[in-house]
Amino acid sequence: MTQWIPLWSQLRPIGNSALAKSALAVPILGYLILLSDKFVDWFALHTSLCSIGRCDALWRLQCLYFGGWTFAIAAGLYWFACPPEIKKHEDAVDFANVENDYAKSGRLERFQRLAIRYIHSANVPYDASQFARVYNIADRIRAEWRAILLVLYGAGSILVIWPTGYTLVQVVVSVFGK
Fold it and tell me: Are residues 26 and 58 in the same domain?
């Protein structure tokens, strides 16, 4: 059942992206735009593009607003629920290399904390391959959070892409349909 749920490392490119981080500003800016008649008028399409469908811009702005909200919620949940080992490191090899260098300097307490958190044992012998094991375990925890993020990112994408695609169809029909 969980085969369709992405791993944290698969959500990482979206969660760590500038788009996800900037989505946190959308609820505030979007609220101001939706309340301003000047912005709504500015986003209105020229009536020559309205040979099919509706011409008003409000529903487009609402889709973008709620899509931005969805991305903002997903970005907040990602930063809350994603293990720091995944957020900071691109893959298990990168994590293992960085942590192994850290552990070689004699600071094994960090390795012990990771072993307790993810392997659930403090008696794990130090071995560089254990760091990759820790990363792979961290990559698979909290499946319910990963499923929620998949739905939120998907819904946000649809809400943002829908008005863009609809406007594209209107422009193409207006230009080539005559």
Answer: yes
Q: What are the tens digits of pLDDT across the range 15-60?
A: 888 877 777 777 677 666 666 666 655 555 555 555 555 566 667 7
pLDDT tens sequence across 55-99: 666 677 778 888 888 988 998 899 899 998 888 888 877 777 777
Residues of the domain holding 56: 7-83+142-178
Give me the DSSP letters along the chain: -GGGSPPHHHHHHHHTSHHHHHGGGHHHHHHHHHH-HHHHHHHPPPGGGTTSS---SHHHHHHHHHHHHHHHHHHHHHHHHS-HHHHH-SSHHHHHHHHHHHHHTT-THHHHHHIIIIIS-S-PPP-HHHHHHHHHHHTTS-HHHHHHHHHHHHHHHHHHHHHHHHHHHHHHHHHH--
* Pair (28, 53) in one structural domain: yes
pTM for the whole structure: 0.73
